């Protein structure tokens, strides 16, 4: 059997919070417990929000946690020319069309809205003729047509997740009107080119997997195994975000140790019976996907401060 290749693909837009730490820990444990390799990639497509400084802090934070990687692949902001090639492939297949819808049109016309606030695109711009397109007089976004077909994710944590892209999502954008490629295309290309065999990340990205599986199939990449790990919640039941300063690594590094933090997360996630301090390396010996909780987890940070 070939060696598993996992990845951690953070967005360097701030200090890591506990949810990011948890996703990175599980991605690391999964491959390291089986002698596999880990790829690190900075997802900095949104150059307004991301920076090299944050990327550097992220690397240091991962080292502090003991979550080592084998190779760091090129940051997404540097890969426009690579994405251009794959975009052209899709265009050659006749699957792309320009979309001129504005944000407000997208939200008013395209019902029904899904629970996460996204909409199902109903294909407003799919059949415009050249004259209609020219009349807009501005650069379009580009959408890929999706087939009326079910995509089934056999997720290591969440079990079977099924989605029909035609009815649950609609044709989706692969390049924005300002020329920036979107996450779905970039992540598919980057994971595919890096030979990633397993994608471990937060549960909030489960509904992205079918779009990525579709692009993998079109672009000739093998499908990785997916593991979407539970989200970490703040004590008041909200999902943690980068705004929760007291849960970010800057604060935690000054108030606790990596072993205490990993011990707490491992116990809250069902991996260990007690929150006793443990290093990532020690925990790798005990890691099993079956032990991992499916439910959102709410670790009591006050125990380790
Ligand atoms: N860059 C995304 C994030 O930081 C993760 C994307 C992925 O793992 O596919 O949330």
Strand and helix map with partners:
Elements: E1 5-8, H1 18-32, E2 37-40, H2 52-65, E3 71-72, H3 80-92, E4 96-99, H4 103-109, H5 130-136, E5 141-144, E6 150-155, E7 159-164, H6 165-168, E8 172-175, H7 183-193, E9 198-202, H8 209-219, E10 225-229, H9 249-255, H10 258-268, H11 280-284
Glutamic acid (GLU) binds at residues 9-11, 43, 187, 201, 205.
Please describe the structure with a list of short key phrases separated by commas or semicolons.
elongated; alpha/beta; 2 domains; Rossmann fold; binds glutamic acid; 11 helices; Glutamyl-tRNA Synthetase, domain 3; 3-stranded parallel β-sheet; 10 strands; 14% strand
CATH topology-level fold name of the largest domain: Rossmann fold
Shape: elongated
Q: Compute the separation of the termini in Å.
A: 43 Å
Low-confidence stretches: none
Total count of domains: 2
Secondary structure: number of strands:
10
Q: Roughly what percent helix? A: 25-40%
Structure class:
alpha/beta
- Ligands (ions, cofactors included): glutamic acid
Name given to the CATH architecture of the largest domain: 3-Layer(aba) Sandwich
CATH superfamily of the largest domain: HUPs
Q: Which radius of gyration do the C-alpha atoms yield?
A: 20 Å
């Amino acid at each position: 059997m070939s060696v598993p290749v996992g990845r951690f693909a953070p967005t360097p837009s701030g200090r890591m919070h506990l949810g990011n730490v948890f996703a990175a820990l599980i991605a690391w444990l999964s491959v390291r417990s089986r002698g596999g390799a880990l790829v690190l990639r900075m997802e900095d497509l949104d150059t307004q929000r991301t920076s090299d400084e944050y990327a550097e802090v992220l690397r240091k934070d991962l080292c502090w946690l003991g979550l080592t990687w084998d190779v760091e692949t090129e940051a997404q902001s540097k890969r426009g020319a690579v994405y251009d090639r794959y975009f052209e492939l899709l265009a050659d297949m006749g699957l792309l069309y320009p979309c001129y819808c504005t944000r407000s049109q997208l939200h008013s016309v395209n019902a029904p809205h899904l629970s996460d606030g996204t909409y199902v695109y109903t294909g407003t711009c799919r059949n415009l003729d050249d004259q209609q397109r020219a009349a807009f007089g501005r650069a379009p976004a580009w959408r890929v047509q999706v087939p009326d077909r079910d995509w089934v994710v056999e997720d290591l944590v969440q079990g079977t997740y099924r989605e029909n892209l035609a009815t649950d999502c609609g044709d989706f954008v692969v390049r924005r009107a300002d020329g920036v490629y979107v996450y779905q295309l970039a992540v598919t290309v980057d994971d595919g080119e890096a030979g990633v065999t397993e994608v471990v990340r937060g549960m909030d990205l489960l509904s992205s997997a079918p779009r990525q599986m579709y692009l993998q199939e079109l672009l000739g990449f093998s499908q990785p195994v997916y593991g979407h790990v539970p989200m970490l919640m703040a004590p008041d039941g909200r999902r943690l975000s980068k705004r929760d300063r007291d849960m970010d690594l800057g604060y935690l590094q000054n108030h606790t140790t990596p072993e205490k933090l990993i011990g707490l997360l491992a116990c809250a996630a069902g991996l260990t019976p007690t929150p006793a301090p443990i290093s990532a390396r020690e925990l790798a010996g005990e890691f099993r996907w079956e032990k991992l909780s499916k439910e959102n987890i709410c670790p009591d940070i006050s125990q380790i401060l």
